[in-house]
C-alpha cells in the first residue's frame, strides 16, 4: 500500500487527476495550466538539496523513501499556482535575493564632511588656546610652586560664558600633572563641576571617593612590590640590607599595616552620612600620603548659591591641619560679584589671586574657529564666508566662543544632512535659527508651572488674533486656565511680575504704555515661535489638560 502511494505521488500525471484542493483551486482559476516536466521537478529538488535543505536525520536524499517525491509534488503545486497567476518561471533554480539597503546604509552612503567632530565641542581641550596666553601664563606662574612641594595660592577665575576659562584651566592642569610625573613630584588636580555637584556633602563625598580610590591603588601596588621582596628573601635571592628594611619583621609589619589601611578605606555613600563624618573621611584620604592637590571648582558660584560658603571655608582652612598633603583651590565663575556674598574670612583666604578672562572679539573668534576647523573638517569643505559669519554671530553674543563652535558644528551637520560636500553661508544661518529655537525650547521647558500658564494665556490670545495684549487680558485668561486644572490663582500683581520675568528671558516683549487718565499698563507680544512654544508647553502633563481651552479667549470681550 505504501509503495503504491509513493509511486502515485511521484507521477505528475497521476497527481493531475487527483482531487487535491490546492490543484483544484489552481485549475479553476486558470485553464491554460501546462504539464510540468518531471525532469524540471528533479532539477528543482536537486537544487534544493544542494542548498542544504536535506533531511534532519542526515539520511541520503537520493534514497527514494517517499520524502523526495513529496517535495517534488509540493514544488509542482507551487509552480502550478505561480503559472496560474500568470507568472512564468523561466529558470529551474531561483536566484537568491540580494539584501536591500537599510535605513543607515543609505545615510552612510554620503561622503562625510567631518574629520573629527569632537574638536568642535566645549568638552574638548585643545593643545593650543589662541588669545589666552596671558591668562595661561599667570596660572602657570602661580601653580609652579606645587612642583617645588609648596602650597600654591588659591586662584579665582572670572569671565562670561564661552571666554575660555575652563579650557584654559584644564590645559594648565594637564601640563601640571604631566610635569609632576616628569620630575617625580606628587602633584594632582581634581575637577568638580559645581553645577552638577552642588552641595557640601556631594562635593566632599566625590573628592573623598577619588582619593580613596587612588590610595587603594597605591596600597595594592606597594603590597605587590613588598610581597615580591618577601618572596625573594624566602628564596634567599636577596638580603635584608638590599630591601631597605632593618629586618624581616619590619618588612612583615609594613605589609600588615598596608593590609589594614586598605580595609579601613570605606567609600562614602552619596547620601546618609553626617557631613562631619564625610569631611573627616575626606581629610584622612587626602592626607594619607605626601602630595600637593589642586581642587578645581568649576561654576563655584552655583555651590555658594545652593549651599553657602561652608565648603569653601573648610577647604581653604584645612592646610593648617594637614600633615602630609597640601591643598589649593582654583575657583571658576561666570559671576563677577559672587564673592560679595562670602564671609570676609573666606573671601580673604580664597581670593588670593584673581584672573579675569575678557570676552573674545570677532577677529579672535575667527582665529579660534580657524584653528579648530583645520582639525575638525576635511579639506576644502568650508566656503570662505562660513567662519567670518560664525564669528560675527558669536561676537554679538558677548564674545562667546562656545556659541561660535556650536554654530560651526551645527552648520556642518546640516550640510551633511543635505548631502552637500561644502558648508555654505545658508547652513550657518539655518544653524543660527536652530540653536536659537533649541535655546527657547529649553528655557520654556524649565519654566515653573505658573509662568507656563501665563505664557500659554499670551499664546491663546495671539492665536486668536489679539494684538497689543495687555496685562488685564492675560490675567483673565490665566485665571480660567488655573480653574481648569485646579491650580492656585496668583494675584494680578504677581502675574505682572511673571510677565516681567518672561520679558527678561526674551520669551515675550513687554512695554509699559500710558493710557492717560486710565493709568499705565503693559502691552506685550510673543518673541518666540508660537507653534513650537505651544508644543513645549502642552508637553507638560499639567498643561496638557487645557489643550482645548481656546474658547476661553472670548472672556477678554466678556470681561472688558
UniProtKB/TrEMBL annotation:
Keywords from the named record: ATP-binding, Coiled coil, DNA replication, Nucleotide-binding
Residues in coiled coil: 216-243
Region (Disordered): 1-80, 86-105
Residues at which ATP binds: 163-167, 360, 372
One Pfam short name: Cdc6_lid
Any GO BP annotation: DNA replication
Record field: compositional bias (Basic and acidic residues): 12-30
Cell inner membrane in keyword set: no
CDD domains: Cdc6_C (cd08768)
Segments forming domain AAA+ ATPase: 151-361
UniProt-recorded Gene Ontology molecular function terms: ATP binding
Comp. bias regions, Acidic residues: 31-49, 86-98
Recorded superkingdom: Archaea
Domain Cdc6 C-terminal: 455-537
Function (record text): Involved in regulation of DNA replication.
Family: Belongs to the CDC6/cdc18 family.
Name of the featured protein: ORC1-type DNA replication protein
Lineage: Archaea, Methanobacteriati, Methanobacteriota, Stenosarchaea group, Halobacteria
Amino acid at each position: 500500500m505504501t509503495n503504491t502511494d509513493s509511486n502515485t505521488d511521484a507521477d505528475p500525471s497521476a497527481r493531475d487527476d487527483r482531487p487535491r484542493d490546492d490543484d483544484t483551486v489552481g485549475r479553476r482559476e486558470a485553464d491554460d495550466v501546462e504539464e510540468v516536466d518531471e525532469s524540471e521537478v528533479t532539477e528543482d529538488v536537486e537544487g534544493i538539496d544542494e542548498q542544504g535543505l536535506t533531511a534532519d536525520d542526515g539520511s541520503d536524499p537520493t534514497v527514494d523513501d517517499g520524502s523526495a517525491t513529496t517535495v517534488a509534488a509540493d514544488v509542482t503545486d507551487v509552480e502550478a499556482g505561480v503559472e496560474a497567476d500568470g507568472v512564468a518561471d523561466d529558470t529551474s533554480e531561483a536566484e537568491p535575493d540580494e539584501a536591500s539597503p537599510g535605513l543607515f546604509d543609505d545615510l552612510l552612503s554620503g561622503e562625510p564632511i567631518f574629520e573629527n567632530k569632537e574638536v568642535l565641542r566645549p568638552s574638548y581641550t585643545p593643545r593650543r588656546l589662541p588669545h589666552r596666553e596671558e591668562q595661561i601664563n599667570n596660572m602657570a606662574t602661580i601653580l609652579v610652586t606645587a612642583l617645588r612641594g609648596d602650597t600654591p595660592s588659591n586662584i579665582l577665575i572670572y569671565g562670561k560664558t564661552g571666554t575660555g576659562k575652563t579650557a584654559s584651566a584644564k590645559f594648565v592642569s594637564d601640563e601640571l600633572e604631566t610635569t609632576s610625573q616628569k620630575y617625580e613630584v606628587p602633584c594632582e588636580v581634581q575637577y568638580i563641576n559645581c553645577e552638577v555637584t552642588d552641595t557640601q556633602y556631594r562635593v566632599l563625598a566625590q573628592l573623598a571617593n577619588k582619593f580613596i580610590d587612588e590610595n587603594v591603588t597605591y596600597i595594592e601596588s606597594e603590597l605587590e612590590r613588598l610581597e615580591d621582596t618577601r618572596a625573594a628573601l624566602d628564596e634567599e635571592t636577596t638580603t635584608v640590607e638590599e630591601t631597605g628594611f632593618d629586618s624581616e619583621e619590619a618588612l612583615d609589619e609594613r605589609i600588615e599595616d598596608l593590609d589594614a589601611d586598605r580595609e579601613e578605606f570605606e567609600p562614602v555613600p552619596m547620601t546618609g552620612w553626617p557631613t562631619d563624618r564625610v569631611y573627616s573621611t575626606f581629610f584622612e584620604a587626602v592626607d594619607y600620603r605626601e602630595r600637593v592637590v589642586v581642587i578645581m571648582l568649576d561654576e563655584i558660584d552655583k555651590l555658594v548659591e545652593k549651599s553657602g560658603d561652608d565648603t569653601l571655608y573648610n577647604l581653604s582652612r584645612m592646610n593648617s591641619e594637614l600633615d602630609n598633603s597640601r591643598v589649593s583651590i582654583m575657583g571658576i565663575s561666570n559671576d563677577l560679584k559672587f564673592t560679595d556674598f562670602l564671609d570676609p574670612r573666606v573671601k580673604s583666604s580664597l581670593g588670593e589671586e584673581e584672573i579675569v578672562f575678557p570676552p573674545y572679539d570677532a577677529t579672535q573668534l575667527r582665529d579660534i574657529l580657524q584653528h579648530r576647523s583645520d582639525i575638525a573638517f576635511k579639506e576644502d569643505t568650508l566656503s570662505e564666508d562660513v567662519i567670518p559669519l560664525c564669528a560675527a554671530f558669536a561676537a554679538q553674543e558677548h564674545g562667546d566662543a562656545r556659541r561660535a563652535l556650536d554654530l560651526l558644528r551645527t552648520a556642518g551637520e546640516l550640510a551633511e544632512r543635505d548631502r552637500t560636500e561644502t558648508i555654505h553661508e545658508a547652513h550657518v544661518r539655518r544653524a543660527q535659527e536652530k540653536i536659537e529655537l533649541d535655546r527657547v525650547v529649553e528655557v520654556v521647558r524649565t519654566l515653573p508651572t505658573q509662568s507656563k500658564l501665563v505664557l500659554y494665556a499670551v499664546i491663546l490670545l495671539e492665536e486668536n488674533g489679539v494684538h497689543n495684549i495687555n496685562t488685564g487680558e492675560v490675567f483673565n485668561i490665566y485665571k480660567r486656565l488655573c480653574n481648569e486644572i485646579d491650580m492656585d490663582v496668583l494675584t494680578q500683581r504677581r502675574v505682572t511680575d511673571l510677565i516681567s520675568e518672561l520679558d527678561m528671558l526674551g520669551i515675550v516683549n513687554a512695554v509699559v504704555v500710558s493710557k492717560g487718565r486710565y493709568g499705565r499698563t503693559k502691552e506685550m507680544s510673543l518673541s518666540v515661535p508660537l507653534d513650537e512654544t505651544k508644543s513645549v508647553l502642552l508637553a507638560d502633563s499639567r498643561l496638557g489638560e487645557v489643550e482645548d481651552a481656546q474658547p476661553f479667549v472670548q472672556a477678554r470681550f466678556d470681561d472688558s
